[in-house]
């Protein structure tokens, strides 16, 4: 297998070649390492050198032998060092995160670790520790965050699938910026584990891929038992089945204070029009939640992260933290019960508003970001002028559409349905009712067929 063939295959196709004996897992591992290193210097997506040997996984799993990378978002894989993108944090995971165990059982072969911003609290993958991660479509632009290293490598054909985590849009925003698929499952669909949010349930771990079928098959492989609605058939099968006539709502409004770029809005509107042409009932809707409540609800998670840092057995040297992290730690120390009560009530209001939307529709269509991918250092996490609140307000100006589904727990996916006149990817978000990844993936598959992206390759490409 050469690099060109490898870089253009999704994970399902690659696994089929391995299962059929047309190529060995060892050969794929070798080619994957060459592909990653071929783009590594340009992209700055690796948090550390590639692992000397890929992490052990079940070669008979549904993704047996498929190359994979994990995100520097905490103690995720046994024996692997982590830093949360910070100069102040150093550790080695004593055990696997439960989702990592499921990735291993699925057969995914982790070959390395990707960059993330400090504490994963930025919609740009930039840090004092690692510098900037660059977009394979334009090296002067960012990848989004916080799973930007993962998105860059998937977009560049270096790996077909990559671990990501999403606390306010951190899978979907990099997916949109880099032109790949990014699913945030429903809260509880995948397992949570130790993270900087101190156990707060707004963050969800899953993955970024290049195809809807990879996303669906991977969810089948790693979904955890929960009280959520169970699909009547595997997601991989459901994604190939017409869901029938659904109620589709769409909006390109991000609140009274955020202007959405006309090219970005046009792609979302075009997706809604395509769904109408396919045969769904499409109408414009109002989401109903107040963006100020979204910020307040996210403060609950942000300050849980601050509390986790304050209570850590080896408390980080705050002098080595970046400015926003220092603000969070300082503010957390003076946090009151009244603050917590206010933020919890905000979370309930947002959740109620989102649930009201899905009493009226099955799937919501929105942009992912309000702008095209940003120039580097536009979102400067190390600027001491920011407080926790003003920082959240700033990053939500860039990504105003994603965080509400973290607050409410609803599943959402970013699809690379468009490109700007300058050639940058534009993502469209689909959100579904709680636990309804089946409907979400079925509509996503319809759009992938009607508005395909498989033939788009960025200038920095492993093949």
From TrEMBL:
<dbReference type="InterPro" id="IPR020556">
    <property type="entry name" value="Amidase_CS"/>
</dbReference>
<dbReference type="Pfam" id="PF01425">
    <property type="entry name" value="Amidase"/>
</dbReference>
<protein>
    <submittedName>
        <fullName>Amidase</fullName>
    </submittedName>
</protein>
<dbReference type="InterPro" id="IPR000120">
    <property type="entry name" value="Amidase"/>
</dbReference>
<dbReference type="InterPro" id="IPR036928">
    <property type="entry name" value="AS_sf"/>
</dbReference>
<feature type="domain" description="Amidase">
    <location>
        <begin position="57"/>
        <end position="441"/>
    </location>
</feature>
<dbReference type="InterPro" id="IPR023631">
    <property type="entry name" value="Amidase_dom"/>
</dbReference>
<comment type="similarity">
    <text>Belongs to the amidase family.</text>
</comment>
<dbReference type="GO" id="GO:0003824">
    <property type="term" value="F:catalytic activity"/>
</dbReference>
């Amino acid at each position: 297998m050469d690099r060109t063939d490898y870089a253009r295959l999704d994970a399902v196709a690659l696994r089929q070649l391995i299962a059929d004996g047309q190529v060995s897992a060892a050969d794929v591992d070798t080619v994957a390492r060459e592909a990653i290193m071929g783009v590594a210097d340009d992209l700055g997506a690796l948090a550390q050198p590639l692992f000397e040997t890929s992490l052990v996984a079940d070669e008979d799993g549904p993704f047996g032998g498929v190359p994979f990378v994990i995100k520097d978002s905490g103690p995720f894989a046994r024996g692997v060092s982590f830093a949360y993108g910070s100069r102040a944090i150093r550790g080695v995971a004593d055990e696997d995160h439960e989702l990592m165990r499921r990735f291993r059982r699925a057969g995914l072969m982790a070959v390395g670790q990707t960059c993330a911003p400090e504490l994963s609290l930025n919609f740009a993958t930039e840090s004092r520790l690692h510098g900037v991660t660059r977009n394979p479509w334009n090296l002067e632009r960012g990848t989004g965050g916080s799973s930007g290293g993962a998105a860059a490598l998937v977009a560049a054909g270096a790996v077909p699938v990559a671990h990501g985590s999403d606390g306010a849009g951190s899978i979907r925003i990099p997916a949109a910026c880099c032109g790949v698929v990014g699913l945030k499952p429903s809260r509880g669909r995948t397992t949570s584990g130790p993270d900087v949010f101190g156990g707060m349930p707004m963050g969800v771990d899953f993955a970024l891929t290049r195809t809807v079928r990879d996303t669906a098959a991977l969810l089948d492989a790693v979904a955890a038992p929960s009280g959520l609605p169970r699909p009547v058939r595997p997601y991989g099968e459901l994604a190939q089945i017409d869901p029938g006539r659904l109620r589709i709502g769409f909006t390109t409004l991000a609140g009274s204070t955020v202007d959405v770029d006309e090219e970005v809005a046009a792609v979302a509107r075009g997706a809604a029009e395509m769904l109408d042409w396919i045969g769904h009932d499409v109408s414009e809707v109002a989401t109903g939640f107040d963006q100020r409540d979204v910020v307040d609800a996210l403060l609950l998670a942000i300050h849980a992260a601050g509390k986790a840092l304050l209570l850590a057995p080896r408390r980080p040297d705050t002098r080595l933290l970046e400015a926003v992290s220092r603000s969070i730690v300082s503010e957390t120390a003076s946090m009151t019960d009244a603050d917590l009560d206010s933020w919890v009530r905000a979370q309930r209001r947002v959740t109620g508003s989102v649930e009201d939307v899905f009493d009226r529709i099955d799937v919501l269509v929105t942009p992912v970001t309000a702008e095209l991918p940003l120039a580097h250092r536009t979102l400067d996490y190390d600027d001491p002028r920011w407080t926790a609140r003003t920082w959240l307000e700033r990053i939500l100006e860039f990504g105003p559409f994603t965080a509400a589904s973290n607050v409410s727990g609803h599943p959402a996916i970013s699809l690379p349905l468009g490109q700007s006149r300058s050639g940058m990817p534009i993502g469209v978000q689909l959100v579904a009712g709680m636990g309804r990844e089946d409907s979400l993936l079925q509509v996503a598959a319809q759009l992938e067929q009607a508005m395909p992206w498989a033939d788009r390759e960025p200038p920095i490409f492993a093949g």
